[in-house]
Design brief:
single chain; about 375 residues; alpha/beta; Rossmann fold; 3 domains; 5-stranded parallel beta sheet; 4-stranded parallel beta sheet; 13 strands; about 15% strand
């Protein structure tokens, strides 16, 4: 595709790298440490390693991998609750594929499926709706998981189920929001960040203004970025220019996809179906106020937590992380994946200990996929 190749042009990338190096030298002359730029989205992390940007970029820039991987930030207790529902004989439990191998305290969904639970991988909540239509004698539960990117499709499925009166369809809602964990990281006195690469797909839904507080209240620049190598390099350059000029603003590098005020249809569906939870538990970050969504009372019939008395609507078990697992430290930028003593030893893609080695957006999976044994060494 010519369009994609234009965003992977080596000559353009070299020019951007030269400009970045020049600004990094200029900024570095006034400080001792590298410029710490957090890419919030796990998709950006994989692009950085896929195209070798971590090796090509000036040594005065250090990428910090953020918590923008919805599968990775899901605590093990929520996986256990999925399995508890899936093991009910009347339930068909449906989920996206990247959640199948995330380990709970005892099993993953894939292992529970192998043990006999009726767990099916779907590509959309509409697939789960169709299963409900075809199986009126079964309870079909969809694992609603993800940031604002996937939240609208689940909301639209719930609205459609309500219109059809499908009483055997429900959603186990684990949808979460991006701005709140960023605030939690910025409030952490041990987290020293100079700027952010903002998520592209999330921003396509919510727009750029939900990030205004980052610049206004914390004085940090954020640039919403695309996923091609020149997108990311241009976004790094835009962050550096703000730092060099002593300003902080929210800028939109991905304007070809991200509208300033988001997608009105998606936002309307979200507002209709969901409301904020008082708090939600994040792996590595703990409870964060108003960071999760739950289904509104008007759609309570489609809320699996209410229907099965599970999760926040039931008695919640406290589940510790696996011994030796450093997922929380990696997601909050305190540790690189290769610094985890389990990386490549007790934790591999074939036998994952933590979610970051499983998810297609996990930082550990990116290090392994593009570094493998060399990274482990």
């Amino acid at each position: 595709m010519k369009f994609a190749s234009e965003f992977r042009d080596p000559a353009l990338a070299k020019g951007l790298l030269a400009e970045i190096a020049k600004l990094a030298e200029q900024i570095g002359a006034t400080r001792e440490k590298p410029v710490h730029i957090m890419e919030i989205c796990g998709g950006h992390t994989h692009s950085i390693f896929r195209y070798g940007l971590d090796k090509l970029i000036h040594e005065g820039i250090e990428f910090i991998h953020g918590p923008g991987c919805p599968v990775c930030v899901l605590p093990r207790a929520r996986v256990d609750e999925c399995i508890e529902m899936a093991e009910r004989p009347e339930v068909i439990f449906t989920t996206f594929g990247d959640a199948m191998r995330v380990p709970g305290s005892k099993l993953s969904l894939l292992q529970a499926k192998a043990a006999g639970a009726d767990i099916r991988m779907v590509y959309s909540p509409l697939d789960a709706l169709e299963l409900a239509r075809r199986n009126p004698g079964r309870e079909v539960v969809f694992f609603g998981l993800g940031f604002e990117t996937t939240t609208p499709s689940t909301a639209l499925a719930i609205q459609q189920a309500a219109r059809e009166g499908l009483t055997n369809f429900s959603v186990f809602c684990n949808h979460i929001t991006v701005p709140e964990p960023i605030k939690a990281l910025l409030d952490d006195p041990y987290m020293m960040l100079d700027g952010f690469i903002g998520p592209g797909h999330v921003s396509m839904v919510i727009g750029i203004h939900p990030y205004d507080f980052i610049a206004q209240d914390y004085g940090k620049p954020l640039v919403v970025a695309g996923f091609e190598p020149t997108d990311l390099l241009q976004s790094v350059l835009m962050v550096l220019r703000q730092i060099a000029e002593g300003r902080a603003a929210v800028e939109n590098q991905y304007a070809r996809v991200v509208p300033e005020h988001g997608n009105k249809v998606s936002l309307a569906a979200i507002a209709d179906v969901y409301e904020r939870r008082p708090s939600f538990e994040w792996r590595g970050l703990g409870e964060i106020d108003a960071s999760g969504l739950r289904i509104r009372p008007a759609y309570r019939a489609y809320d699996a937590e209410e229907k099965f008395g599970i999760g926040y609507a039931g008695k919640r078990a406290e589940v510790e992380e696996a011994e030796g697992c450093a997922c929380g430290a990696v997601m909050t930028g305190r540790m690189k994946p290769v610094a985890c003593p389990q990386f490549g030893k007790g934790c591999t893609p074939e036998m994952p200990l933590g979610a970051l080695m499983v998810s297609s957006e996990g930082a550990c999976a990116a290090y392994w996929q593009y570094g493998g044994a060399r990274a482990a060494e």
